[in-house]
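Help needed: design a sequence for this.
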């Protein structure tokens, strides 16, 4: 009986400590006092996660074929060559075809934006080293990864690097409630700030409360000073709802992100920034409106109808 009571007390104590750490970590943000412990955890557990991922995924090492693309600034042709070589190297199973498609899309984004990237695999998700929407990737300090680097995939903005171990790194996803990124509207250049809302659309506060925005408008990253943590021009998402303007100084939008944060597999860390802002060139082509069918009605004269210039006779 004594052992049972002691076990329960220990369990209650551990739960209380866990909640206390969660509270301290959330309130501390980037200056959290447990950040050092998180980095230590990345150093200890990162190689284990990396090793497990490599063991269960034998085709994963092929992604290393694109990891040196960040060392070349004139790299469009090189990226295409690497992509062709990768396609020849990998097999033809469904998962491989999916990953090839992801790699191909990511390399196209890197080429259009002139971003130097390090390819990476997602090897863990969730709160292994924190209490936020995060992923762990299989590249770290030994690969040139540093804190506050932009992370993207073939669809757009994934997040930013927050913690770096020797061989792994933690990425805070763009849908995390603590995530904020400066945005710019396509075409109009209206500026704002997007914040994550978990599994709901991103919430964007435009600086211009009178901006003319409509559903379907698109946003990209505005960029940060010295391009950290965000490089410019990365696709963010599409406006799905606009709050009515009530004369406020700002205007609120809700944006469906391009990236599906529950289906992340292959990502790229931007290790070399573009020489100039790519503006809207990285956005995917706009969908073409479906053509409206044109109906032409042709009247065919009846065989019994009178001919041209003839009138039916009338009985006197």
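Sure. Designed sequence:
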């Amino acid at each position: 009986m004594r052992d049972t009571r002691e076990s329960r007390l220990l369990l209650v104590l551990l739960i209380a400590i866990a909640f206390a750490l969660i509270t301290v970590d959330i309130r501390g943000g980037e200056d959290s006092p447990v950040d050092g412990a998180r980095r230590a955890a990345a150093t200890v557990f990162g190689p284990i996660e990396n090793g497990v991922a490599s063991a269960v995924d034998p085709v994963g090492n092929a992604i290393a074929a694109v990891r040196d693309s960040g060392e070349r600034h004139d790299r469009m042709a090189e990226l295409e060559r690497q992509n062709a070589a990768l396609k020849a190297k990998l097999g033809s199973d469904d998962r491989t075809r999916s990953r090839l498609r992801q790699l191909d899309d990511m390399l196209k984004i890197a080429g259009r934006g002139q971003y130097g990237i390090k390819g990476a695999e997602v090897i863990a998700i969730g709160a292994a080293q924190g209490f936020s929407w995060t992923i762990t990737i299989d590249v770290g300090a030994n690969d040139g990864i540093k804190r506050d680097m932009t992370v993207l995939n073939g669809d757009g903005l994934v997040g930013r690097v927050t913690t770096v171990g020797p061989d792994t790194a933690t990425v805070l996803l763009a849908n995390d409630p603590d995530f904020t990124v400066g945005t710019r509207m396509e075409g109009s250049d209206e500026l704002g700030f997007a914040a994550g809302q978990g599994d709901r659309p991103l919430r964007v506060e435009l600086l211009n409360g009178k901006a003319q925005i409509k559903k379907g408008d698109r946003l990209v990253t505005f960029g940060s000073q010295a391009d950290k943590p965000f490089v410019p021009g990365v696709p963010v998402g599409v406006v799905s709802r606009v709050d009515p303007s009530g004369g406020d100084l700002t205007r609120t939008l809700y944006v469906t992100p391009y990236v599906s944060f529950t289906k992340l597999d292959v990502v790229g860390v931007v290790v070399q920034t573009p020489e100039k802002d790519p503006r809207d060139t990285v956005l995917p082509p706009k969908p073409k409106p479906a053509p409206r069918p044109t109906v032409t009605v042709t009247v065919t004269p009846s065989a019994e109808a009178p001919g041209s210039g003839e009138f039916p006779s009338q009985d006197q």
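The mean pLDDT is 79.
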